[in-house]
Amino acid sequence: MTPNYRLSVAPMMDWTDRHYRYFMRLITKKTLLYTEMVTTGAILRGKNRDRYLKFSHEEFPLALQLGGDDPNDLAECAKIGEDYGYSEINLNVGCPSDRVQNGSFGACLMKEPDKVARLVSAMKSSTALPITVKHRIGVNGKESLEDLLHFVKSIRSAGVDRIIIHARIAILEGLSPAENRTVPPLRYNDVYAVKDEFPELSVTINGGIKSLEDSGKEFSRVDGVMIGRAAYENPYLFADADSLFWDTPSPGLSRLEILERLKDYLREMEKEKIRPHSILRHTLGLYHGNPGAKVYRRFLSENMHKPNANYTIIDELIGKAKEHQSHIL
């Protein structure tokens, strides 16, 4: 049975890498995190598999999101993901980028529900891990509720363990990926209709949800909520997630304590020749909505890229805040 992941952070290209995930684990221990989408070709034919799949134990629970359209490749990658120790394997059927479309996977697969069912079946045959699918409510030309219900029926029959539905259609021509996250209108009722039609299927809703309060309101209609951009722009909104949604103590770290923990992480990553900006860029939203946010962002933006920057940048930041009696503290 699929674990009850009531809250999750969406997989986001260039954002949800291992450093972001480590940072988020200082804020929430229970929220399900996802990798960036990794293509089957990168895993099977790339020269450095660890580059795409390596993670630290602190990142659990963690799902691997795969992109591909070949059942044998996806089955092999699902098994590799299991061997690496991931918590679940997710298939991307929602990305509308030209690069993904040229590979005949992502959102364009919604036009072929029977094919997606074969992909799910192949992945399930290769691993004991839960197999989940993240998809849209449709694509242009296949955007009715009937189309959506037919798609879900197909992958349910293949044994999908959970579906995550972005409550917008994807427009495959004429819109950029960023525009596809905002321009097509949200249709939450379509997601609710899926849950009503398939009550035994675990359904997570995604799209436009920006707070824990709004997330909580969704649980009367669906099983889970996935938050995307807001989780990156305002990560500290998850500070109370564990206690609210899992009735377990949240980490309870202040923003300052999180920075102190990150100093140790920066020091460790120096051994792998990881530059500070690769880590600290993910924390620019830590003080979102806080009076000290501008001081924080400005200092990091001006200093984290410097050639001599290292873990002591955290001490410099705290010192600067004290000097200006910043609200950061």
The biggest beta sheet is recorded as: 9 strands, parallel
- Under CATH, the homologous superfamily of the largest domain reads Aldolase class I
Structural class by secondary-structure content: alpha/beta
Number of strands: 9
Mean pLDDT: 93
CATH level-1 class of the largest domain: Alpha Beta
The CATH architecture of the largest domain would be Alpha-Beta Barrel
Order of helices and strands: EHEEHHEHEHHEHEHHEHEHHHHHH
State the helical fraction.
40-55%
Strand share of the residues? 5-15%
CATH structural fold name of the largest domain: TIM Barrel
Q: Helical region count?
A: 16
Distance between the termini: 44 Å
Structurally, the number of domains stands at: 2
Shape: globular
Q: Residue ranges: pLDDT <50 for 5 or more in a row?
A: none
Any idea what the radius of gyration is? Answer: 20 Å
Set out the fold topology:
Blueprint: E1 7-9, H1 18-25, E2 33-34, E3 38-39, H2 40-45, H3 49-53, E4 62-67, H4 71-84, E5 88-93, H5 98-102, H6 113-126, E6 131-139, H7 145-157, E7 162-170, H8 177-180, H9 188-197, E8 202-206, H10 212-218, E9 224-227, H11 229-233, H12 241-245, H13 255-270, H14 276-280, H15 293-303, H16 313-323
Parallel strand pairs: 1-9, 2-4, 3-4, 4-5, 5-6, 6-7, 7-8, 8-9
